[in-house]
Amino acid sequence: xxxxxxxxxxxxxxxxxxxxxxxxxxxxxxxxxxxxxxxxxxxxxxxxxxxxxxxxxxxxxxxxxxxxxxxxxxxxxxxxxxxxxxxxxxxxxxxxxxxxxxxxxxxxxxxxxxxxxxxxxxxxxxxxxxxxxxxxxxxxxxxxxxxxxxxxxxxxxxxxxxxxxxxxxxxxxxxxxxxxxxxxxxxxxxxxxxxxxxxxxxxxxxxxxxxxxxxxxxxxxxxxxxxxxxxxxxxxxxxxxxxxxxxxxxxxxxxxxxxxxxxxxxxxxxxxxxxxxxxxxxxxxxxxxxxxxxxxxxxxxxxxxxxxxxxxxxxxxxxxxxxxxxxxxxxxxxxxxxxxxxxxxxxxxxxxxxxxxxxxxxxxxxxxxxxxxxxxxxxxxxxxxxxxxxxxxxxxxxxxxxxxxxxxxxxxxxxxxxxxxxxxxxxxxxxxxxxxxxxxxxxxxxxxxxxxxxxxxxxxxxxxxxxxxxxxxxxxxxxxxxxxxxxxxxxxxxxxxxxxxxxxxxxxxxxxxxxxxxxxxxxxxxxxxxxxxxxxxxxxxxxxxxx
Amino acid sequence: xxxxxxxxxxxxxxxxxxxxxxxxxxxxxxxxxxxxxxxxxxxxxxxxxxxxxxxxxxxxxxxxxxxxxxxxxxxxxxxxxxxxxxxxxxxxxxxxxxxxxxxxxxxxxxxxxxxxxxxxxxxxxxxxxxxxxxxxxxxxxxxxxxxxxxxxxxxxxxxxxxxxxxxxxxxxxxxxxxxxxxxxxxxxxxxxxxxxxxxxxxxxxxxxxxxxxxxxxxxxxxxxxxxxxxxxxxxxxxxxxxxxxxxxxxxxxxxxxxxxxxxxxxxxxxxxxxxxxxxxxxxxxxxxxxxxxxxxxxxxxxxxxxxxxxxxxxxxxxxxxxxxxxxxx
Amino acid sequence: xxxxxxxxxxxxxxxxxxxxxxxxxxxxxxxxxxxxxxxxxxxxxxxxxxxxxxxxxxxxxxxxxxxxxxxxxxxxxxxxxxxxxxxxxxxxxxxxxxxxxxxxxxxxxxxxxxxxxxxxxxxxxxxxxxxxxxx
Lengths: 547, 329, 135
Fold this sequence. Notes:
The complex is a heterotrimer of chains A (547), B (329) and C (135).
Chain A: H1 6-15, H2 45-48, H3 65-68, E1 72-73, E2 76-77, H4 82-94, E3 99-103, H5 106-109, H6 133-139, E4 149-153, H7 158-171, E5 181-183, H8 188-194, H9 201-218, E6 222-223, E7 225-228, H10 230-234, H11 239-259, H12 264-267, E8 271-277, H13 281-302, E9 315-319, H14 332-345, E10 350-352, H15 365-380, H16 395-417, H17 421-426, H18 429-446, H19 475-490, H20 493-509, H21 514-522, H22 527-538
Parallel strand pairs in A: 1-10, 2-3, 3-4, 4-5, 5-6, 7-8, 8-9, 9-10
Helix pairs in contact in A: 4-6, 7-21, 11-13, 11-16, 13-14, 13-16, 14-15, 20-21, 20-22
Chain B: H1 6-13, H2 17-29, H3 34-44, E1 49-54, H4 61-74, E2 79-85, E3 94-96, E4 111-117, H5 129-138, E5 143-147, H6 157-161, E6 164-169, H7 175-182, H8 184-187, E7 190-193, H9 201-214, E8 226-228, H10 237-253, H11 256-285, H12 287-301, H13 306-328
Parallel strand pairs in B: 1-5, 1-6, 2-4, 2-5, 6-7, 7-8
Helix pairs in contact in B: 1-2, 2-5, 3-5, 4-10
Chain C: E1 7-13, H1 20-31, E2 35-43, H2 45-55, E3 59-64, H3 69-82, E4 89-94, H4 98-106, E5 112-113, H5 119-129
Parallel strand pairs in C: 1-2, 1-3, 3-4, 4-5
């Protein structure tokens, strides 16, 4: 190499001729043709990278990473009635999956019962419907909850879905201290991206700190929140926005918990994250590495956590649903494989691989099996799990990691200027940034600056879709509503009313809501009844659309 | 719709919502249909009160309008809302998002909401908005809220087409100065300080009082009522609504409402005559073409446009005399 | 009729918060010179058609990723017919299997779009098929 510089080389590069193509990342990031040691000048590997399992954890949260323990292969699943989903869980566990991940249907995600007017046509469609403890009992029937970790993608009504989960464990005689798993419970990204809320932000944030306090004492192995960038990315953000907005949400939760008087060392080790893995392989890996470094620094230096376990950014990864196409669905297997590999090289703790048919319907059993096999090939055949952080030290990866970190820091400053995350939400800052990025990406596709193989390039015109799709029978809704009505007829309605009244009192008095929620769940109060009771105290929320 | 069938009018006067909506579309898109529509609408007017809601961008006009409308409905009124949003000068398209903030109202059969793009209007409304208000009035709605664009320019059109103007302000933004410059502050009948939970409400109120004191236009007139509220949190809106209703009664009782209606009619008659004459003249002389030729010539050779103007006017006069004579025979 | 603008209602029926597609399409339509009434989230078929009547909309566009497309499109179409909007275009997009797309077309729904479909194609489709009955 001698003293040659990139500038000198660049002349040759230019002379060699360059294709007429868009060489930006999927986020629109301008990229150089080559990265060298010059791009890392001033970036000290010892402090920027450190060692796996050591601050700042750029290279991974564990010293042994996948040599010690492979990531958890956790396929998100749920559809139809609790009985149907229970069957799918047994199938997945039998095929070698190592953890459960519950997908709830839209009415459940909004805290509405299956017989609510807005629920028409949606019951059991994109996840499982859970209305009462009776549904929770059926959902996990025969599954050893003390041995399998359970992740639940639920946000607005997370606290009372969790109360039903706990009540079920209690009935089965499983101690709360044996329960392992994660609640998504990330309301901020709902306001930012996914739009599934019940109350205004403040009461939701209070419920989250109530849950953190309760779990720190009673359910110590439970991850109380999974701070999610996934949905932010699916809503159309760039990689840097996903990184920055997710971590900013994380800081906001930490600040709320501290303000509520919680000890950082009690709750910080139970925080976890959830990132998207999109198509731009290197950018995604860099994003995940940057996330660990930023989080560790903030937790240690800004929030003064002493225990290294409080500094760790542990995360789940899901491949990008928005990268899948309805056209030529089989090639989605390849997209997902690349994205999954990026998740592994980014050092995830658990991984979900999307099924090839998800741009068309909920995944069929066959498609789910292929998706799980994809992870197994990465783990057992590709060799990717043999060496820790195999891309560490790559000029390109390290430069991207640095750049993404800087971009995130710029966003943090902007959010501070706006008065913090909640104020920025109210002003539509995140919503506008994301909508703009989404629009720019669509326009780039439309102008053929970016490509979707099989769609705007190499399309098979007139090709008929030939993979079998899963259909949710229209009878699901009827069955679920009938089950709900049965439960309501069989329970002690006086006891339910009493527990709901006690819940309202506690809500108004500012007491921790987990004990009264647990009591409501035990008495088979419905999801919607609990939502209504709390709405009476907390009010509801309607977003202005921001463009 | 240049000839509107009788059944359509029957449908409209019986309360057909789609017929009403289509009439508004017609005044937005087909100026040639205007005489026929006004011919039926003006006699059909029932005396609905028009309440303009204006103010700088971002102060929450839609939320205020919705909160006032909700209370009007509760008090037993039928309510119309015309919500104007800006037309993009680049694409000509418009994003009309006000209905989102009026969600609960849009399911109420006492309410008719119409979003309008500002199109060629520069005074905070679209050129068709006053006619849309006439249509809603003839449709039988007795409280018609007209919400201006609110992009910050002088939105004075709302003064002409409303009986009462609510100026919405918010603390801490210095909007008062803009409102003063635009002249709207002197014409407003009520100041609604929205988001009064924010800091700076007192400062805002102080500057309002000061501005009123020094305003020559306001001399001798009482200081308009000021209401503090937070429309989003639904605080103070009962008082705001009661104040608006009191002013409406006052407006009707004092004869100001009659005066407003009269001047609206006067303006309409005047502009209808102008339109008719102009249309007649254009047809006569191919005016568009010849005016362009005259303008070209003026640039080319210099000179005054008045010889042409005099000639054009005398042509119109001759035409009028001819028409009278031919009728006389 | 020179200035006849196409007016489009964009709505998300039911309990589905995924508004990326709805917003991107709304913006593309505005940039193509159309007037877009954005109703946003949690709409019922009744509130959508009610708005379409009052706005005298040429087109109703629904975005549905919740699997509830058959229920919602069917109900909106029924209400359009009973409200005198039978001549207006009902279109939309989301996660909608081909088989269901065919069923929707039999119901009188126009083309529905899916992930990966080109934005410009959607704009052109709406421009070409928006109701243009004089008046």
